[in-house]
Amino acid sequence: MTDRYQPKPEHKFTFGLWTVGSVGRDPFGEPVRSRLSPVELVYLLAEVGAYGVNFHDNDLVPIDATPAERDRIVAEFKKALRDTGLVVPMATTNLFSDPIFKDGAFTSNDPRVRAYALQKTMRAIDLGVELGAKVYVFWGGREGVETDAVRNPVDALKRMREALNFLCEYVIDQGYDLKFALEAKPNEPRGDIYLATTGHMLAFIETLDHPEMVGVNPEVAHEHMAGLNFLHAVAQAWEAGKLFHIDLNDQAFCRYDQDLRFGSHNIKAAFFLVKFLEDVGYQGSRHFDAHAYRTEDYEGVKEFARGCMRTYLILKEKGERWNADPEIQALLAEINADDGSTDPFKGRYTPEKAAALKMATFDRVALGQRGLAYERLDQLTIEILLGVR
Ligand code: GLT
Ligand code: MN
Ligand code: MN
């Protein structure tokens, strides 16, 4: 491996304990790897060059731990962080594994389950903040249905809003420096999950009491499962000032949630994503929410983690090459050329502009016939990606 693809802290590459810690269980198969402790996983991540580690409350502290066990586990984890220099930029709550959440957490029909979910989340927020988290993710894996007979989706939205408003107030009340990032997924494990895409989340955020505290955590795989263009979701979130976090992985369209190694499936989409994040100057974590193939032992898991980061850095370099390529830049200049003829109509509406525009003439046929050279531009992109340019 060449040094220029070596991960560095400034790249802000993070992994969840649940990612490299995945034991390879799937709906049809038992674990294929033995479980590593959170401390062992911190050392594994340090070895491969990660900057940070994120966790669900129960990735670190078992759901039935006593207060004394919790304190011991947290102390050991903090020591591993100190020894390795790894940081915890993000934390989240497991509101999906335990049977109590089988009908959802914040949207469950049972008010006791909803109250328990709030209690669990407040405690998990305390834990995340104690370890330094500045972003708190909400992924509502169980917030959905198999049949709409059981719940009016409007009630689900109201319950979700009530929960997030409550938790925003909790964070403010505690004086925590913490922002929320909502993560959408269209389905799996539920048949349908409410607020199915990043676009749904962005609209929902504006209905909250503290929209300024809440952004999104888009995940490649989740938008691709819905057959959507991930970059467009990310760009909309960015433009709205809501890209608080990002989950990088890969995914074949319309399949089950594969959580593949970043850039391993759709290289062109991954390239434009990395180029976008780098070009706009996204400052948040580059979090890999992915799993090694089930075929791997822990050496393979390390290869997987190294691969995520290395591919990101290779694509970053390709983006720089794309931006510096004279032919690409000439094509872009041509594509975006402006002869100034529409200057009188540009900008905000005025009655005068509207009247002038209504009278203007356009050579519709010529404009329609003009070739745009997008084929050439895309082929140049492919040649950069294939390493011949
Ligand atoms: C789970 C899910 C992910 C979420 C995690 C955060 S857990 O693995 O598939 O997409 O980001 O709760
Ligand atoms: Mn996923
Ligand atoms: Mn995710």
Overview of the structural elements:
With 389 residues, the chain is of the alpha/beta class. It folds into two domains: 9-319, Alpha-Beta Barrel (TIM Barrel), CATH 3.20.20.150; 326-385. The protein has 15 helices and ten strands. Helix 5 links the parallel strand 3 and strand 4. Helix 2 packs across helix 11 (298-324) and helix 5 packs parallel to helix 6. The longest helix is centred in the last third of the chain and has 27 residues, at 298-324. It is globular and about 75 Å long. The two termini are 21 Å apart. The relative contact order is 0.10. The model has no long low-confidence stretch (mean pLDDT 97). Bound molecules: 5-thio-alpha-D-glucopyranose (GLT) and manganese (II) ion (2 copies). The site of one manganese (II) ion has 6 residues, from helix 8.
Total domain modules: 2
Strand order of the largest sheet: 8-6-4-3-2-1-10-9
Bound molecules: 5-thio-alpha-D-glucopyranose, manganese (II) ion
Q: Number of helical runs?
A: 15
* Model regions low in confidence, pLDDT < 50 over at least 5 residues: none
Kindly state the mean pLDDT as a whole number? 97
Question: Main sheet?
Answer: 8 strands, parallel
Structural class: alpha/beta
Under the CATH scheme, which architecture of the largest domain would be assigned?
Alpha-Beta Barrel
Rg result: 23 Å
Helix content, binned percent? 40-55%
CATH class of the largest domain: Alpha Beta
Shape category: globular
Q: Per DSSP, what share of the residues sits in E-state strands of 2 or more residues?
A: 5-15%
Order of helices and strands: EHHEHHEHEEHEEHEHHEHEHHHHH
Q: What's the number of extended β-strand segments?
A: 10
Q: Kindly, what is the distance between the CA atoms of the first and last residues, rounded to a whole number of angstroms?
A: 21 Å
Find the CATH superfamily of the largest domain. Answer: Divalent-metal-dependent TIM barrel enzymes
